[in-house]
Amino acid sequence: MHRRALVCFAFSALTAVSSVSLAAAPQATAPAASTGQAAPTQSTGGNGHIYRVSLFRAAPGKTGDLEKLLTTQAPAPTRADSDFGVVFRHRQGNEWDFMTVEHMGEQTSIDLRSGPPAQADSPLSQAAAWHMDTFAAGPPLDEFRKALSLQGGTAKPGVYIVGDYMAAAGHRGQLQQVLKDIAADTPGRAVTLTHVEGAPWNFLSIVRYDSWQQFAQEEDATSAPKAGTPDRGLALREHMAVHHDTLVSVQKVSGSASR
């Protein structure tokens, strides 16, 4: 398994060289990627690929500039054919404006020698008020693309719900099971990523709807569960400490694997 230099939609101010590998399916529960510490080994439920999830909040008056930066930067030539990235734009929900998700393969490294941090006066530094990076474990790229209908190189009509979840103390396994049950309600169009290093959430789910109409219809159908049907919302509240839902659309699909 080869090491691959981390090249992102945005250059982060990282201060160390470190390696993240899911060859043995690790999952970290504490330090961020910038600590330079390798992730301890835990089960990720069969998700053996690494994804980098980055959230961006635009500086005042700079939303258009930030969107242009994130959607026009092509993957570097050194990236392997399997690499892939997508830019989502906030529509309703949490405080961030854009989310990028990049496929990094089964092993990746952070190396300042191949990618220096953004300078204080760089275009990205001027356009973004803040950003947050997280490594997460997820399914193989083909499965990720198919579930979210991202096989092509252009943004498609549709809407997505991004949900991030932090488990209540001692309830991570139960929360994971409830999220699996919820994903089963939308078979073939949901992806769940599991935290490895970075942000405090434990799980991040992305669910695809082909249109706003489909989203509204399914929300209406689940707003009043039928007798004998589990209430997923109540089950979530039994096992989570914090969660946020955000409606997003796809702005850009990049990488050789997008074609």
How much strand? 25-35%
DSSP strand tally: 10
Structural class: alpha+beta
CATH topology: Alpha-Beta Plaits
Looking across the biggest beta sheet, what order are the strands in?
A: 2-4-3-10-7-9-8-6
- Helicity range: 10-25%
Tell me the number of structural domains: 1
Q: In terms of quaternary structure, what is this?
A: single chain
Q: What features would you describe in this structure?
A:
This protein starts with 17 loop residues before the first strand and ends in a 5-residue tail after the last strand. Strand 8 (190-197) and strand 9 (203-209) form a beta hairpin. Mean pLDDT is 78; it is low at 1-17, 23-45 and 74-78. It is built from 6 helices and 10 strands. The protein has 259 residues and is of the alpha+beta class. It has a single domain, classed as Alpha-Beta Plaits, CATH 3.30.70.100. The strands form 2 sheets. An 8-stranded antiparallel β-barrel has the order 2-4-3-10-7-9-8-6, surrounded by 5 helices. A two-stranded antiparallel ribbon has the order 1-5. It has helices at residues 63-72, 123-127, 141-147, 172-184, 212-222, 232-239, and strands at 18-21, 49-58, 84-92, 98-105, 107-110, 128-138, 159-167, 190-197, 203-209, 240-254. The radius of gyration is 18 Å and the shape is globular.
